[in-house]
Structure formats: C-alpha cells, structure tokens
Design goal:
heterotrimer; A mainly alpha; B mainly alpha; C alpha/beta; A: mainly alpha; ABC transporter involved in vitamin B12 uptake, BtuC; 13 helices; 1% strand; globular; B: two-stranded antiparallel sheet; 11 helices; ABC transporter ATP-binding protein (chain C); transport (chain C)
Amino acid sequence: MTVMTDYILPVKSRGLHDEMIAFGIMTALLLIVPLTGVYPYFVMQALCFALLACAFNLLIGYGGLLSFGHAMFLGTAGYVSGHALKVWGFSPELGIVAGTAAAGALAVVTGSVAIRRQGIYFAMITLALSQLLYFIYLQATFTHGEDGIQGIPQGYMFGLLNLANPTILYYIVLACFLFGFLVIFRAINSPFGEVLKSTRENEQRAISLGYKTDQYKLLAFILSGTLAGFAGSLKVFVAQNASLTDVHWSMSGEIVLMTLVGGLGTVFGPVIGAFVIIAMQQYLAGFGQWVTVIQGVIFASCVLTFRRGIAGEISHRFGISL
Amino acid sequence: MQALYAQLLVGLINGSFYALLSLGLAVIFGMLNIVNFAHGALYMMGAFCAYFLLNIAGIGYWPALVIAPIAVGIFGMLLERTLLKWLAGLDHLYGMLLTFGIALIVQGVFQNYFGSSGLPYAIPDELKGGMNLGFMFLPVYRGWVVVFSLVVCLATWFLIERTRLGAYLRAATENPTLVRAFGINVPRMITLTYGLGVGLAALAGVLSAPINQVRPLMGADLIIVVFAVVVIGGMGSIMGSIITGFALGVIEGLTKYFYPEASNTVVFVLMVLVLLVKPTGLTGRAA
Amino acid sequence: MPDLAMAAAATRPASDAGASILSVRNLEAWYGESHILHGMNFDVNAGEVVTLLGRNGAGKTTTLKSIMGIIGKRTGSVRFNNQEINPAFSDRIARMGVAFCPEERGIFSSLDVRENLLLPPIVRPGGLSLDQIFDLFPNLKERLASQGTKLSGGEQQMLAIARILRTGARFLMLDEPTEGLAPVIIQQIGHTIAQLKKEGFTILLVEQNFRFASTVADRYYIVEHGKVIDGFANSELRANMDKLHTYLGV
C-alpha cells in the first residue's frame, strides 16, 4: 500500500538550503505587497488561510493524520477573540492570546479523543467533533447563532498601532504569519518532527524503539490546533466578524483542499495552495454554487492525477526541496 | 407519554436511515477500502430521483422505490469504474478525499438548480393517515418506513452472511487476490458491491422524501452523523452496523424528549464517550 | 547457454511421457521494483508430479504466482494446454483449469469450513464430489460448521487442498503443502498427492522438504536466483544427491 506521503521527496541535506532560499523569496514578495497595489485584504485573508493550512499540514504531512475538522479551531479562536475584543474590551494582543489559547485548550481535549484511532477513523472522528462544536456554537448565545459576531473593533495593538489602517494591519498579519510558519518549520526539523515522521512511516517500529507515539501525536495535534486558532484570531481583525461559516465542515474541506492543491507534506505547498484557492474564490464569486462544483472537481482531479500538489510537483521536476 | 412515543418513532425512523447508510458504508469499505464520503450525496440523489420520476414522468412512489435505487446504483457503478478504481493500492485517505470531492460536485450541481429549500414529495395514498394503537397515534407512513427499513437491513444481512454470493463477498473482503485466483471476477464484484451500498443509500433517500422533503443538502449533515455511528459501531460487522444505527436513532429520539437542546449533538457525545471507554468501537475491530 | 528445461525434458524417462500441459519460457517477474524471476524455463507434462526445489527466496513461490497471474509485472511465455496465458488475469487462468493452493493456505476466517470448501466455483466438469473429498479428508466432514481458521494447521492444509479438487481443474499448483505440519499429517498429504496422481491430476509442487518431495515427485527442477539451473527425474535422484546437497545447502 502506498502511504499518502510517498509522493514527498525524502529530506536531503541540501533541502534545508533550498527551503531557506524559498523562505527568503516568499518573505521578500510578501513584504513588498502593499507597494504593488494588490488589494491588501485579499493577501491578508490568504495569509490567515495559509497559516491555517500549514498547521493542518503539520498533522497530515508529517504525522499522517488527516483532520477533517480543523475548522473547529479556526471558528473557536474567532469566536473567543471576537467576543473578548467586542464584549470584554480586550486589547488586540490579548484578544489574539485569548482566541489562540481557547483553540489550544480545545485541541488538548479533542486531540486526546481523536488520536485514539488512526487513518480513516481519525478523519471521521475529527469531522464529527467539529460538527459537535458547530451545533454548540449554533445554540450558544455569545456566538449570536446564524448572525455571528459582527462589527468587531480592531483597536490599537500594544496601544500604539492602529489596526484600522490596512497597511499596519497587513504588516502585523504578515509578522504573525511568518512567526507561525517558522514555528512549524522549526517543529518539522526538530527531533520531535523526526519522531513524528517515523511514526507516520511505521508506528509499530517507533513504539518498539521506545517512543510514546501517542504523546507525539497528541503534541502535534495540540500544536496544529493552537496555530490554526492563531490564524483564526488573526482573521478576526481582517474580516471583523466571526461566524458559523468558519466552523462548518465545508471550511474544514477547504483547508484540506488548499493543502492538497499546494502539496501534502511540503513546507511551502499549503501557502501556495491557500493563495490559489482564495484567489479562485475571489474570481469565481459570481458563479454561486458552481464554486462548490469546481472545488469538487479540483479535489477529484488532484487525488486522481496530481497527488504531489504544486510544490511537490516542482520539487519532483526540478529536484529542489520546497 | 404521547410525545415520548412520538419522539421514539422519530428516533426509529432516523435510526432506519443511519442503519441503511452505515450498512452501505461498511459493505463498501470492506470491498473497496474506501470510506464513501459521497454516501450522503447519493442518498440525496435517491430522493431526487423519486421526485423526478413523479414530477417529470408521472411515476409514483412504489415504482420509485425500485427504480431510484437501481438508477442511483448504476450511477455509483459508473463512478467506481471511471474514478474510484484508480485508487487501488493507495492510502485509504485518498478514497475519502476523492469521494468528498464527488460529494461536493453532486451537491453543488443540485444546489445550483434547486437552491437550498425543500421540495415536497407526497406520501403515497396507500400509506396516508394513521392508526390509533391505544397508547399512541401511529402515522402509517412512518411505521412503514421503520418496518421496511428493518426488512431491507435484515435481507442485506442474510445476503452477505448466509448466501453463496455473500461468501464470495466476505472472502474477497479478506483476500481479493486469492478469490480472484479461484476464478471469480473480483473487479466486477467490487463494482457491484459499490452499486449495492449506493443503492441502499438511495433507497433510504426515497423513504425519507415524504418525511423530510427533498433538499440538495439533505445528505450533507446526515453523513457526518453516520460517520459518528460508524466510529461507534465499527465497520467490521453487518449486524453491528444495523443494531448501532437503530439504537442511536432511538437514543436521539429519547434525547429530543428529555433534553431537546442536546438532540443534535447526542450522537457525537456518545461517540466521544465510546472512544474514551473503548477506543476500538463497540464491535471491537481496530481500523 | 543450453536450454535447461529442454535438457531436463530430455532426461525424462520415456514411460512417463505425456503431452506437455504447462510450458514456461523466459518467464520474468517483478515485485514492485525488485526483479525476482530472471527467465524461468521448464515444462510439466500431463499426469506428472513435478517439484520445484530451491533455497528460500529463490523464486519458487513467485513462479507459481506468476503462472497463476497474481504477480502484476511479468514477461515471457506461459503456455497452458497450448494456450498462452501470459498475460491474462488470474480469474481467467483459473477458469482454464489451473488451481492454486497458496503457501499461507488462504483459509478465510469469516467463512465456515463448508463455505470455504464450496467457495471456488466449478470451472469444468469432472471435479471430485463432496463424498470423494470426505473419503480423502475424513476430518473435514466433522468440522463443516467450524470457522475456517479455527481448524488445526493440518486440517487447514487439507481444506486448502480439498477446495480446489472440487473445481474440475486438472492442474494443481501446491505451494509447500507440508510446511510446519506434523509427520503423520505430512504422510497423509503424501498419500493424498499419490492418490491424485493416480486419478490423473497433474501437479506442480513447491517444496523445501525434499525428503517428502522424493516420495511423490516424478521430476525435479532446481531453482536459484529466479532461474531453473538443473533438472532430473526421480530415478536419477540418487546419482544427483551430491549436487542436490550443494544446491540446497543442506
């Protein structure tokens, strides 16, 4: 049986070198975006989803765990941040911390349930757990049900930086994205990441080598959920609302799709995938439900003919590590 | 007490759908190693098929009960022949992703033409009205759905566990290579098995049409509940799927009576409890 | 390089000569990336019991699986009853009258003994009746309702052989039927094979236990590194003993 991540190139010693260069190029491109006249809200939204997809990819790409419920972290962090900012009057930085911490706590609870099973069952369990959260948020009062939390104030970061200014907000979001990206990058290349990868390849062997693989998987799940929550909190400042859309299963599906398009188990694939899918949604916004159909077609064609994704295909063709 | 019995009946009806759908998922998973995410969309297609038959061709409920599962089953077999069969040998998760994509396509197309609201489908004349059972009023159609679903579930169980065809199926689930080396056309069996599982989903869709109306997204949320049912009951046992499906429907019905706020979530909460107490699921076979 | 299959066929005692049922030429096979068979050449004639001998990993099991059509990537020619069966899918090969009993026996745990026994479809008339099978393996009759894998190892082996006798296939491929079995059971299986030969079955056997093989085989082929490197008749066994010890490393 071919394991999902067989399409990923083995990490080579020069891999790190390639990835550093790619990181430099990515950062430089993102830094000059406000000067290019590209609509900053589009890029900010894409950055939030890119971080979200990177967090998701940590689980599937390196731990072999397909979460079909990552929207629950996005949505939970969004609701908590939104509520803290709007109702409790939290400052932006505290609002982000509150939302991220809530997602982290949720990841501890859901992770310890979900990692009890592997493979397809893990996917079904995470999907069911996020649906459970969806119904809870649908009925809870602080989420305002179908309406969601609207008009969330952006405020002044550290009392100084006016987040209502798109340029300032852009650089804050970018800094947060790069921070989250580097945390994941560091985790993948740490001893922790190595154990995680060996668990994906052969869990029994990792266990027999003395690793408590369940603990590693749980830790990866918590890290992934927390960073997904971090992305959700950031998104509150961009969208200024928190709604049920972000907890819905279709959102979880979009996260999977972004990562699949970009390349499962690649470092930069989720970022590329997020930009591609968000751009596609922008351009096709007028097509109504056909967007869903197109997403389905992309899903199916990626699985059938393009399992390496964009970054994986580039790596494969040109022998560079992305 | 009337209200309790009424909710119990609703629970049994939902349980019928859970049982028919999780049964199909289990049969499909056994042969194809694919968790059929498109199962909810195909259930919806069953209901729409009945709707089209009635409104376009004037063909009523009874023929639809036979035609819709066969038509959707054939559609499923085409999917298997053209798309799913390429996944042989790949990680199980790819099957889930591909069928999720198929579900998005099917649901998206139907949403485009029919929006999100429900289309009515009338209860057939023969099953209109109700019976006074003394302790409760039983709408005939609802009673019919429960009894008929149970019969179909048991017939499927009999087919798989007690017939020669079922023996082929069980053997091919264990070791398809050897079964094929005995001279049995296993690829054809795989296609037919997918058709059978899909047909059961479509049948549930037809049964549901007069109760829940016909909506493009009617299967989208249902499939997630059915996944939770499958996690609880496991996919290793046919009878296990049937019993778990009905039992969870009943529990959901009871919750609607005693604590309605939790009726949407009770199946998921039970799933969490089962995972905490017995991580391998109730029938005990690991993934 | 001389064609060893031909050489081996030439050494065959004339009295045993029947029409060639199976003729394997330049058969190569791969498991994924690893190249296992490197050009197998041998023949099996009607009514013979032919044994493939060789060390572990020499390619004996792969040879049977390649003939059966189970190995995905294979080249060369396999002619069965003068029909080319490479490449064909295994279900078609089975329907032509080739029956296979795998090394791991392949008893299905979700089927009871009766279902296991009745599973392989009848491919042509002339198979053994259930009564004849129970005459050969009386143990099975008492265990019909047991779960297939609840049987002892010996009973499972008997079941694995019994179920392919029903199908009407006259060419049987048995992969290490004595592996891990007690001497008394091995004896019974030897008796069965002798009986089947008497009834006109043609049998291609893979064995590690060459003492057992010598009680049933008409001819031997030695397999090494995915090739037939030698062959001789049972009557020449004694003369070839030294060579055999070198080949098999016993």
